[in-house]
Specification:
The protein is of the alpha+beta class. The protein is built from seven helices and 18 strands. Helices cover 22% and strands 28% of the residues. The strands form two sheets. Strands 1, 2, 3, 4, 5, 6, 7, 8 and 18 form a nine-stranded mixed beta sheet that branches.
Length: 374
Amino acid sequence: MTTPTSSPSSPAEGDTRVLTPIEVHRAAALRQLPPADQLGFGRLFTDHVFRAEYAQETGWTGARIEPHGPVAIDPASASLHYAQAVFEGLKAFRGTDGRVRLFRLMDHCRRMQTSAAALWMPPMEPETLAEAITRLVEIDERWVPPTRGTALYIRPLLYATEAMLGVRAAMTYACTVLLSPVGSLYDGPAFAPTRLWVERTRIRAAPGGIGSVKAAANYAASLTTSMEARARGYDQVLWLDAIEHRFLEEAGTMNVFVRLGDEVLTPPLSGTILAGVTRATVLQLLRDWDITVTERAPSFDELAGAIASGGDVEVFGSGTAAVISPVGALGSPDGDLIVRDGTPGPLAERLYAAITRIQHGDAPDPHGWTTIVA
């Protein structure tokens, strides 16, 4: 067979379904489960992974669940040189009834399809990816921790594998799904207010770029600023817009919300920020509760003025890892701007309670966000 030397005319050219049934190869020996209070975030992994491979001529094949372990990758692989890699992050929860629930499974699978297409990669069909995730969680169900504030984090990853040096879309890809039992995203209590450094020079993403894509490159672009913020004693970065450096965009790797009195503001999906699944959950709950919410990016000066004048203000982030993360301080060379005396606000607390209750099966799920898998 002749190896193609050019990229397909579209990222979905060829069959993007998995064309083979999922085979299961179980680990001969199972790992010892860690104590729930020693999980951390993203440091431990379960017994199995899902894998499949894509080539233009065959579509997705080789779908299998197998023991977790390293993979061989050619040092010339396109993902290593040209950052063709996208991923997702979602969670499975052990409910108080003992059952395991996935939260907003199809929304994450559809977003990964969108991310793949944005980097000219062949997406795996959302239904196929959802089946793979469900089967994998069923097999490693014993790893879903039982303690409130913990979960099984699910990381689907799609990356280019073709060995070539040349700036074009690759011809071959791999998909892997990893599972990791997790506790709090940050050190300390799960709902403790975070401290953000307000970045006024560097940017995370610019209009017309890939800021709205869950691409590995976006996270690499944020690392220097994030590490500098931590060196200053802050947990993460409050990113401002790329043009004027005035308007709020994201809180670290989370979507950001600001409550000014009776109105909640959050930046619109204008192409530079991720369409967060937890963000969509927050927006729906606020509307269910008849709370006024506007998709508008407040300026930092507007926020600072409201805090300085003693207004009723909350700032919090939303994301899969932290769910809701209240912000207690905003740092700059002029010093810290303290939000609500550094304590969580009532709306952040209400949202966190409402979302986690649905995730654990302790509250009705009128929007059908959860999928029971075991």
